[in-house]
Design a protein that fits this description.
heterodimer; A: about 240 residues; alpha/beta; two-stranded antiparallel ribbon; 5 helices; 13 strands; about 25% strand; globular; B: about 210 residues; six-stranded mixed beta sheet; 6 helices; 10 strands
């Protein structure tokens, strides 16, 4: 029997034809396959290897008083309901002009290119399907590095082909001739449309390693052919030369 | 084939083995949720976890197939070693390992460890990009040597359970011992989605180096 790695509910795999990243979900917390894969990587980072779900880790942290500092850049998603029980959890989002903020007043403004928190603040930074939309991605990685504690990790999810392409494909660049390319627009949770700016390749890992991260792309769904497009980036602030 | 366990239907799913690159159908058994390896070539779940994790950590091509990565590894001059019999002698994984310490040498490790605390792996400092160690062969002296022979940022991979699982306390203790010697540790647990955190689990430790 499979379990959701976020809420620990038993679940069945979707039998929906063609079901891949988005269609396979937990019937209890609505976490999609990619969320559960990401949760699996987070579990390996913040648990001692014995917990079967993020819920269990959070309950344990609350019992023992463990001070877990987590920044999640998201407006929605299954991690919020789990981590918001922790006093050290901060939910951030980059509000844009025209955003519908009516139901999300508690969310703090957080631009990944200029994160409004002090150095060495967090054990974990979470981004789900965010990096491909960030304008100045290098700045974002530098800022995440700055706010992570030494040994802290950035855990990000995004789709990637398998076998993965060697190079990242940038197909929407501002202030350049490339802007004439037709961007693929995606709806954000606050009702706006954002252009997808890149499709990642394996060079992402090499770039992050050059910046001092220990970086690896994890494919938790490797046992499942259909899940192989799920990729979770684990970038640890190692600081090693 | 569809099996039922309680009120949840277990649907077999298709998978492509990283070793034989053949597609097969997998389904955990209804009673135990036991996770199989590849039914065609016999690679165990632990073999698959280990190789996928190492390839993901080092590959620049992003191809998870073991044979493809072996070529890439050779071209780039990456060096992998292993201590222990099961992994380094497995036909599925031996292509990835350059410096296996097997058979008699493993016995030598044991004899040395029992008689003298100064165990030494016969390799120069900062040589290896990855070292695979059977968890049962990992006394403190081996871990210290692993730190010496791994380059900064190199990966120490320790499969931490067999098919019968492994006591949680021992797994946690191993991680703690590695952390105290400066490693960053992380668990890779394909079984966790099946409610079996230990099944096929790997303790992945990143070797420390000079702080930048």
């Amino acid at each position: 029997m499979m379990h959701c790695t976020i809420c620990a509910s038993p679940k069945a795999e979707s039998t929906k034809p063609g079901g891949k990243r988005e269609d396979i979900f937990c019937y209890n917390c609505s976490a999609r396959r990619r969320d559960q894969d990401q949760a699996q990587v987070i579990l390996g980072l913040i648990s001692d290897g014995t917990a079967a779900s993020l819920n269990a880790v959070v309950d344990s942290a609350l019992r023992t008083g463990r001070d877990l500092r987590i920044l999640e850049v998201a407006l929605s998603g299954p991690f919020i309901a789990v981590f918001e029980k922790l006093p050290g959890y901060i939910q951030g989002y980059r509000w844009l002009e025209g955003s519908n903020k009516s139901q999300q007043q508690a969310v703090q403004y957080c631009d990944l290119e200029k994160i409004p928190f002090a150095d060495n603040s967090f054990d974990l930074v979470l981004t789900s399907e965010v990096l491909p939309f960030v304008e100045q991605e290098n700045l974002a990685h530098q800022e995440i590095w700055r706010v992570l504690k030494p040994g802290g990790a950035h855990v990000a999810s995004f789709p990637m082909d398998w076998p993965a392409p060697a190079a990242t494909e940038e197909f929407y660049m501002q202030d350049s001739e490339a802007e004439t390319l037709s961007p693929r627009l995606f709806k954000t949770p606050d009702g706006l449309s954002l252009p997808l700016r890149r499709k990642y390749g394996m060079d992402l890992v090499a770039r992050l390693k050059n910046d001092g991260y220990f970086a690896t792309l994890r494919r938790e769904s490797f046992l499942d052919r259909e899940g192989r497009r799920n990729v979770t980036l684990m970038a640890v602030k190692a600081g090693w030369t | 084939m569809t099996t039922s366990s309680n009120d949840v239907t277990l649907v077999p799913w298709k998978t492509v083995c990283e070793f034989c690159v053949k597609e097969s159908e997998l389904a955990p058994s209804g009673d135990t949720g036991r996770l199989p390896g590849c039914p065609l070539c016999g690679a165990t779940l632990q073999d698959r976890t280990l190789v996928v994790t190492l390839i993901a950590a080092f590959s620049e091509s992003g191809d998870l197939r073991a044979a493809k990565f072996a070529d890439e590894k050779h071209t780039r001059g990456l060096k992998f070693g292993s201590i222990g019999v099961a992994f380094s002698q497995a036909k599925y994984t031996s292509a990835l390992v350059d410096y296996p310490f097997r058979g008699d040498l493993r016995d030598l490790f044991w004899r040395q460890h029992k008689s003298a605390p100064s165990l030494r792996i016969p390799l120069m400092d900062n040589l290896l990009d990855a070292l695979i160690v059977e968890a049962s062969l990992a006394p403190d002296a081996v871990l210290e040597e692993a730190r010496r022979v791994l380059r900064p940022g190199g990966v120490l991979a320790m499969p931490v359970c067999d098919d019968n699982g492994m006591p949680d306390a021992a797994r946690v203790l191993q991680a703690h011992r590695l952390q105290t010697t400066g490693f960053f540790t992380h668990f890779v647990q394909p079984g966790v989605a099946f409610g079996q955190a230990g099944r096929g689990a790997l303790l992945m430790a990143i070797a420390p180096g000079t702080a930048s």
